[in-house]
Amino acid sequence: MGHTHSHGDDSLLNRSELRRRQVVRRRAVVLLGWILIPLAVLTVAAMVMLWPGGGTSAPSAGNPYAAAPGASFATGTVQRTVAEDCPGAAGQKCLTAYAAVKGGAAVPVMVTPDIVQARGVKAGEDIRYLKLPQASAGVAPMGPQYVFIDFVRTVPLGLLAFLYAVVVVAVARWRGLRAMLGLGGAFAVLAWFILPALAEGKPPLLIAVVGSSAIMFGVLYFAHGFSARTSTALLGTLFGLGATAALAGWAVDAAALTGTKGDNAYQLLSLTNGMSLSGMILCGLIISGLGVLNDVTITQSSAVWELYELAPRTGARELFTSAMRIGRDHIASTVYTIAFAYAGGALPVLLIVSLYDRPLIDTLTSAELAEEVVRILVGSIGLVLAIPVTTAVAVAVVKATGRSTEPHPA
């Protein structure tokens, strides 16, 4: 009888603990809603006001691969290749790839020296080439009639995307699928709101903050669901976003980042009627840190909740201290992640600059590297500041909502 009674008491205690946790979560959601709902409404209202196309239109450059009159594009499969001297460039080797359109005869396509040196073209590969108009009768041709444009990458990129989707869904299951769909929504905000608004000359700092906030609202709730943990992480993310935006706004001006270095700078200036390139850099500094910022805040929020549910009677100070131990480890690893991610993306620039005979401090503060250095520092500072804030908010929420539901000692 005593043994049966003991199991009954345990079952009652388990049900009581489950109800207590459910009450804590519901109260936490309501408490955070009073803060996040006005921020969401403000974000939507700002997006409506800043939405591109209101009285102005973004400039259009047309298709950069549009053919000149009389010329056309074709896609063919390489049958064979022949190395020969480039016309008009003694000492340089060009490659002639004999490519055939499906059902047609092979034509000689000239492959430029940079492609030959970088990789070359192999038999069996699909390429895209430009067919120039033939010279008039009796006029000697000025150059090759078929010129290599690019490789056709549809199949390998499609397979890689499919493999990525399979791996994510297999490991993370339904949550992984939701995360990928949320990523698609984030790119939709980037393509339909942020980029066109920047091209129209709207305030870049405001565009970056509003667009990033909208992305974070959608991505976090869609991937992780509506819960107190997600809302706490979102609040910490928005704080980190605000800190990053303020710091980026100061750093771009103080470090005199002009954005004029690179092949695309003058093209952007001509296509956008003088868009601020420094404003584009500012917007990029804010957006580039969103993924890592989201990662650390959702991890910290979950850590606080798990620690609290394991020991509900833990004091607020002790709970904060325990969660920050996890946060410090995350900070250390994530700072490396940011630095190496940016270093990998800027590897060609780093290699070129390293070949110059210049002092190290001059190299790091040069126009070629200053933007990457500022991006690493600004992103890391916003990330580090978001962790204690997210932890403090999570501790405050779980303690405030859970205090009255803790069972009194018998």
From TrEMBL:
- Transmembrane domains' residue ranges: 28-51, 151-172, 179-199, 205-226, 233-252, 272-293, 334-356, 376-398
Q: Does the keyword Membrane apply?
A: yes
Cross-referenced InterPro entries: YibE_F (IPR012507)
Query: Is this entry keyworded Transferase?
Result: no
Q: Keywords for this entry?
A: Membrane, Transmembrane, Transmembrane helix
Q: What is this protein called?
A: YibE/F family protein
Please report the organism this UniProt entry assigns to the protein.
Arthrobacter silviterrae
